């Protein structure tokens, strides 16, 4: 599963699907300038969600609390969307997109080595995500950060033929630009039709990322 990705290197991000010039580009505020480019579980990443019908960009912690009896500390990738545990957070008010420049998976070789994947056209990726508010401690046990926290995760799907030789189980759900509006606004049954691999010719492996 994807547990390491890189945020955007640019200061603004075009959010497809909103023609109003005021919201056609979201400028990352200065308070986000010190965020790390590399995002790991329980670290902050930028997400885009709707507020009063307009896209806003916010920093949230990566990882939902796990279902009961699960061994994972945080759930960063969600695949079984039929589960009753996830259904409440798939409603339109809890959907978001996660902008990224690339994501990594560990290859099958020993010692393990990260392989990086990016869009063929070099444009930002938009992972299909979910978000919620959660009250509790996050961060390291030595320096816990008290809640409430805004947290996010993103959906995965079977891998395409670019990712499969490296990681045969899953890949992030990467939205095409025209699909971002659908994911953020459509009824759940329509939005979940987007849970499928990005076509092979739209993703490239970057050996030296």
Uncertain stretches = 20-24
How many individual domains? 1
What's the average pLDDT? 86
Distance between the termini: 18 Å
Number of helices: 2
Q: Percent helix among the residues?
A: under 10%
Q: Sketch the major β-sheet.
A: 5 strands, antiparallel
Helix and strand element order: EEEEEEEEEEEEEHHE
Structural class of the secondary structure composition?
A: mainly beta
- CATH 2nd-level architecture: Alpha-Beta Complex
Q: Taking Cα atoms only, what radius of gyration do you get, to the nearest Å?
A: 16 Å
What is the spatial order of strands in the main beta sheet?
4-1-9-10-14
Silhouette: globular
Topology:
Blueprint (H helix, E strand, L loop, with lengths): L4 E2 L5 E3 L10 E3 L10 E2 L4 E8 L2 E9 L14 E2 L16 E6 L1 E5 L7 E6 L5 E10 L14 E9 L13 E2 L7 H6 L2 H4 L11 E4 L3
Parallel strand pairs: 6-12, 7-12
Antiparallel strand pairs: 1-4, 1-9, 2-3, 5-6, 5-8, 8-11, 9-10, 10-14, 11-12, 12-13
